[in-house]
From TrEMBL:
Keyword Nucleotide-binding: no
Domain of life according to the entry: Bacteria
PANTHER family linked: BLR4337 PROTEIN, MDO-LIKE PROTEIN
Acyltransferase domain: residues covered: 12-372
Name listed for the protein in its UniProt record: Acyltransferase family protein
Species this chain originates from: Novosphingobium aureum
Endpoints of the signal sequence: none
Amino acid sequence: MTNGKPSTASKIHYLDSVRAGAMVLGIPFHAACVYAADHEWVIKSQQTSIVLFHFTVFIHSFRMPVFFFIAGFFSALTLGKASTVQAGHSLVPGRHAHRWLGDRCVRLGVPLIATFTCLNLAELHVLKVWATAHDSGSVITLEQPRAQGDLFAAAALHLWFLITLIIYSALAYAAYRLARGPLATLHARCRRASTGELLAILVAVATMLNTFWRSMLLVPALAQALALTGFTSTILWTAFYAPFFLLGAYCHVDRRLLERLTRPAPLAIAASLVVLTLRVSLPAFAPRSVDALRFALWTPSAFGGIYLVLMLGRAFFDRPSTLTRELVDASFTIYLFHHVVVVLAAIALLLVDWPIAAEFTVMTLVALFMPWSVHLLCRRSAFYRFFFNGIRPETGKRRQVA
């Protein structure tokens, strides 16, 4: 299903940069969640901000869709490399796709387990102790999500995306092994359509599917069945983000789409800005009808955000840079470690009465530079690279996160 022109991730500098930026944006997003009005998070300040509420809506509109788009692109790229070998001047099927899936499970699963056991459980214990000592109803502990049937999501905290990526990897491997013929036929048909038609169809289908999944929660029997599994959020987010992962994977197969998504076009820029602005401007503490509209706009605004971010990324970061390379290298560690730092900083800042802007700024900077410092101190350690980056000591090679 390749286009006969193999590419390497190293030639597309801006995709690595954008992926790192999407991960690092998790820091101001989670810091803003502490203060955002009409927004529940693991810990909340008594001071709230409407501005930070709109900021969280803005970041949430595109950050993870962008990340999963790039994850899909690199997954297809690395699966293609593992599944083909060079024979003269052409590519022929290889027999190493199963190794790709094993590498993905190690690359994603080891940091998931290590971060969960070393950081998340300690973080949840601190939250519970704080809530008990201060009789605080604003701190979410494991007991509250258990009543909502979402215990797993509460314990996983910010690591849910690793679980989703493992699921996508398993499904991609199964599709490669079992449905290469139908996928090749589908690709041939898609090649006959214009890129504009493909994008319009994908946006429409993704919007309808995501609306369908969300509306399913309104069916009491289904909502209760999902709640009993304890995997409600994991199931829903895996379904919601699948279109973006698939789009990224297909952009590796058909580079016309990637070119279209990174090319400045006045009409596309205007449409993307309009839908993003409309979603972000919807008021907090709104009635259910406005919340439904906000969700309906999420998928179109996500595609618009993907377009704007990729276009800007290609314009400004499609070149080697020492600082960018350092940030890309550290971004995974920064994301894994930042959550506990944000929570501890939020607890500490509950004891003072600073302006929200000052507390938010301090929390963001501390949660950025402390994990980055950990990475700089430990990056030569084989133990650290394996448990928090999934890099096997015997390979000594950096594998893609996405």
